[in-house]
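Methods — Computational structure assignment.
A single polypeptide chain was analysed. Its primary sequence is given first, followed by the predicted tertiary structure written as structure tokens.
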Amino acid sequence: MVRLGTVDFDLGVSVLYWQKIREPVLSAARKGVINFHPAPLPLYKGTAGYNLAILEGLDKWAVSAHYADANIDTGPIIDVSWFEIESGRITARDLERQTQSQLLNQIKTILHKAIASTQMLSTFPNEGGRYVSRLEMEEMKAIAPGDDIDRKIRAFWFPPYNGAHITLEGKTYTLIEGTILSSLADPTISSLFTPANSNDALGRKPSSDRGE
């Protein structure tokens, strides 16, 4: 409730909020403000979690619940829920979709406990790890010497946002590789641009073999 310019409530909830939660909200929540973060804490704070998971070739990922404090993703951790991923194949967009499903399950579980409890939930320290700002994430997208270009393309493929890119004559171009391009096509449609060989880029047979 709001009374005479003050804020008074039991529990605050933040889901994928990209800014700091400030006073008087932090102090007003008697049972704290719980933030749900789409990456494992304390390892990956801030942005670029999906990107780093793919760049670093991880085979598992996690979603985290923690109590918010004055900084970003640094408050005491309530829960970290891990799940398997295929970082050698997926794009950042794929990982975001997989993570959202896991995050929804965690939100339901943690909020049920928080609402039922008369006090704040038990936690463990949120120490160390890596914080990446939005500016740093954007800088990571540039192709640099020694990069695994295919992996970097997948790590930053999240249309309609700019992905891994190169700059030529002052213009920046987002890159795409064949597997991603193939995944965007409708496998039921053949056209002038369909490769005329026994098994085209999408794994289909020529139209003559399909009785067309």
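Note: Confidence is low (pLDDT under 50) at residues 198-212.
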